[in-house]
Amino acid sequence: MGDTQDWTAAPGAAERARSVLAAAWSCAVTADGAREEYVGAHTVTEDGAVRLAVPDDSALFGAVLCAPRQEPSALLEFADVAPVPVRHRIRARLWLSGWFAPSEGTLLFQPTRVVLRQSAGAVVVDLDEFTAARPDPLAGAEARLLTHLAEAHPDAVERLTRLVRPESLHAATRVAPLAVDRHGLTLRIERTRAHGDVRLPFHTPADDVAQLTERMHALLAQASAAACPRALQRQRADGDG
């Protein structure tokens, strides 16, 4: 009988939503019939509220001040974009519905509904779970880590394909690191007219970059012991011809 796992192989919806929120650099705000884009203007509180710094003369700030009870309904949208250039780079979208109120010279947004859309579809995230969840510990470093892996260690990415089932690599034209979190690494497998994603789980979660380095070394050691996928062997042979 195989070993049992007492951890989640992928982040849950609430943790994923908090990770998207924590790593996003921009957001779109729709309120009072107007839509505005803000870059580098928001921060997130421990319980998942969004603090937004906007100019005093912005339409949004005026809507908050003039709304009844100073609680206008609003919709915030965040996009999770893959740091490595791949086809269809948006990995997830996050929508927060709720209300704004002035707070310490900024606008504080309290979400009342959270919707996360990923490739598998959209889910409504339980609000209590969203409030209690914490972002993935690697969310803030993910972009730097994946970019470094793709640009400085393409040989390691190729070696990791040895852990992918051969059928998943059929007709592959390119493999790139798409995402990493404390539970595993996701590879994007691109084909001429399609693509797919394969997840390589870590043997235990990584709670910081140092632990991630150890988990990656373990994956690479496992890959080194595996045979090179026949699909890639054929591609190399075709390319040499």
From TrEMBL:
Protein name as annotated: DUF2470 domain-containing protein
Residue ranges annotated for the DUF2470 domain, each copy included: 142-219
Species of the source: Streptomyces tricolor
Gene3D superfamilies for the chain: PNP-oxidase-like (3.20.180.10)
InterPro entries, alphabetized: DUF2470 (IPR019595), Haem_oxidase_HugZ-like_sf (IPR037119)
SUPFAM superfamilies: FMN-binding split barrel
Superkingdom of the organism of origin: Bacteria
